[in-house]
Backbone:
């Protein structure tokens, strides 16, 4: 909890006074704000109908009731309770934000259709088009994981070779420096020629976007390993292969992870373009398709899914990093 | 290939099969620095008998550490040759281990794994795991086998670094100011420990230091180097039995004359 509190800065959260007399004050306020969002959704008529307004009101109303219950029992929930209490202020603000979002879009028409959508408009997309979106998620994840894994594997191997071997670096580094700044999408014309299927071309684009940052960061990581470590290894009887596996690779892992995080962002950024290449499903395809038909609510709905996927994968990468780099001083 | 019988020193507890003699024959070395050359060693000539503990003393930056790197086989001398038991050194070998001023433990590996490095690199770790445990016990770090280097104090890290060297049963231990960065109390403890390990294992030891007292506490021969490029300026013998005491009048007298050769009067 303390690490979370630190990132939010002191004074932002007043933990000790959050629960007074067994009652979680922010929980009650959150219940009020979410109830307000539910009330606005059903109580004020839509300027233009969106659908699923009733369902959205039931969900937000249900969450309001849940907060009300939680405000009485949260102090008995231990670790989970602490986390809930910590984010109490966020829960209040999200409720207010949903209510304002409803008011500015569907209820007043100030932010008009089709460019903006109220929250229940997004919910309506999941309700009416959920099945197609699920298929799109599956297609996107397939393309992304194949491209990302291929890209980081090749990028890592190339990076180790560039960082370790002077010859490899002499011939390879100029290419990497030339190719590096070119957006992966600029290779679309050649990929069409070289790959027999558009799916292969799409994988290549994603792989290129994720491979280049991993290669550059791995090369710089391997290149910047403290030379004294290699001296120690050689003195203790290590051959080159041992020096690479047991010294160069672990010593450069912190750099590699920086590269992996960059690769993750780049690969998600090119997904939309990669799915332009003759795809029939996929979130990127869905976004373009819906944009062409001014289905902006659908676009937003797909964007939310993409953001959640990306955040989830980043979380996984953090877990992997914490496990592998626990040896770093002051890391955890 | 002894330089002369006068240099042969009585071996203390040395088991002859685990120590080696070192012959340094008119070794000169220079660094190439962007066009110009920097001479660091100038016709160094001396021999170390098997099992002997010799200290190399001199002003900092004079090239003593370079000499140790040459003996370890990490670099080749520009001219001259270095022989260990009559064989010319061409590359590093785990029978000659260099311990640096910094512990240079691998931060990503536990203390146990660090100490096991030499055995693992030679592919004998599976059969000889017990040696890692006994090396850790020897430097009293058994309780810290699973700790990571950043969790150790400076003295503990240097002891781990010694264990990483000793686990290979080196015949020649090259010590490059191994206690230079430690606080004075830890230094005293580790000086005594070094003597104990040397007497127990019987290896030949070459110690680079700029601490005259340390040289006198540990070694039976002290070779004094000049400023860069290093030349041998003087050589002293000190045959007192161990453990020695820093307030021993003989030690104090010899310390004064060594400091005199270094250009410092006390």
Residues:
């Amino acid at each position: 909890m303390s690490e979370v509190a630190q990132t939010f800065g002191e004074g932002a959260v007043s933990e000790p006074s959050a629960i007074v007399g067994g009652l979680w004050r922010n929980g009650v306020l959150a219940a009020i704000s979410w109830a307000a969002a539910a009330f606005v959704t059903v109580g004020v008529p839509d300027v233009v109908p969106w659908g699923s307004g009733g369902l959205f009101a039931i969900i937000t109303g249900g969450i309001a009731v849940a907060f009300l219950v939680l405000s009485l029992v949260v102090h008995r929930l231990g670790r989970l309770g602490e986390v809930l209490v910590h984010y109490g202020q966020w829960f209040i603000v999200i409720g207010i934000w949903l209510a304002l979002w409803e008011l500015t879009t569907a209820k007043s028409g100030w932010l008009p259709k089709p460019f903006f959508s109220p929250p229940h408009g997004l919910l309506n997309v999941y309700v009416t088009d959920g099945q197609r979106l699920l298929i799109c998620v599956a297609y996107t994840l397939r393309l992304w994981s194949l491209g990302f894994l291929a890209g980081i594997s090749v990028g890592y191997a190339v990076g180790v070779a560039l960082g370790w071997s002077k010859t490899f670096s002499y011939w390879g580094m100029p290419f990497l420096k030339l190719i590096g700044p070119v957006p992966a999408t600029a290779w679309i014309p050649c990929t069409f020629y070289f790959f027999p299927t558009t799916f292969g071309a799409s994988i290549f684009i994603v792989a290129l976007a994720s491979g280049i940052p991993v290669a550059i960061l791995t090369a710089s990581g391997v290149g910047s390993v403290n030379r004294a470590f290699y001296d120690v290894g050689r003195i203790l009887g290590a051959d080159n292969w041992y020096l690479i596996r047991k010294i160069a690779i672990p010593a450069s892992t912190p750099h590699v992870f920086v590269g992996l995080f960059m690769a993750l962002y780049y690969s998600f950024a090119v997904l939309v373009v990669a799915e332009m290449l003759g795809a029939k499903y996929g979130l990127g395809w869905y976004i373009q398709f819906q944009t062409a038909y001014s289905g902006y609510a659908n676009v937003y709905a797909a964007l939310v899914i993409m953001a959640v996927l990306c955040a989830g994968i980043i979380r996984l990468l953090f877990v992997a990093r914490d496990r592998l780099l626990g040896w770093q001083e002051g890391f955890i | 290939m002894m330089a002369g019988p006068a240099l042969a020193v009585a071996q203390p507890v040395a088991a002859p099969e685990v120590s080696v003699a070192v012959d340094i024959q008119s070794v000169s070395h220079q660094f190439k620095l962007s066009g110009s050359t920097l001479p660091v060693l100038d016709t160094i000539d001396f021999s170390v008998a098997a099992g002997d503990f010799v200290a190399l003393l001199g002003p900092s930056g004079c090239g003593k550490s370079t000499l140790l790197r040459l003996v370890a086989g990490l670099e080749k001398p520009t001219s001259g040759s270095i022989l260990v038991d009559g064989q010319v050194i061409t590359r590093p070998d785990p029978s000659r281990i260099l311990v640096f001023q910094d512990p240079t433990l691998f931060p990503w590996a536990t203390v146990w794994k660090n100490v096991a490095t030499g055995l693992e690199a030679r592919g004998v770790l599976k059969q000889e795991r017990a040696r890692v445990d006994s090396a850790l016990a020897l430097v009293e770090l058994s309780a810290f086998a699973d700790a990571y280097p950043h969790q150790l104090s400076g003295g503990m890290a240097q002891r781990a670094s010694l264990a990483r060297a000793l686990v290979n049963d080196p015949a020649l231990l090259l010590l490059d100011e191994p206690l230079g960065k430690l606080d004075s109390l830890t230094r005293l403890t580790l000086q005594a420990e070094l003597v104990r390990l040397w007497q127990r294992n019987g290896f030949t030891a070459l110690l680079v230091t700029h601490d005259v007292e340390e040289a006198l506490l540990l070694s039976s021969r002290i070779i004094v180097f000049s400023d860069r490029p290093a030349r041998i300026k003087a050589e002293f013998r000190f045959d007192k039995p161990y453990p020695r005491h820093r307030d021993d009048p003989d030690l104090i007298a010899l310390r004064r004359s060594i400091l005199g050769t270094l250009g410092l009067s006390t």
User: Anything to note?
Assistant: The first strand of chain B starts at residue 22 and ends at 33. The helical segments of chain B are 64-72, 111-121, 129-138, 154-166, 184-201, 212-218, 249-261. The domain at 17-101+171-261 of chain B is CATH 3.40.50.300 (Rossmann fold). Chain B touches chain A through 25 residues (CB under 8 Å).
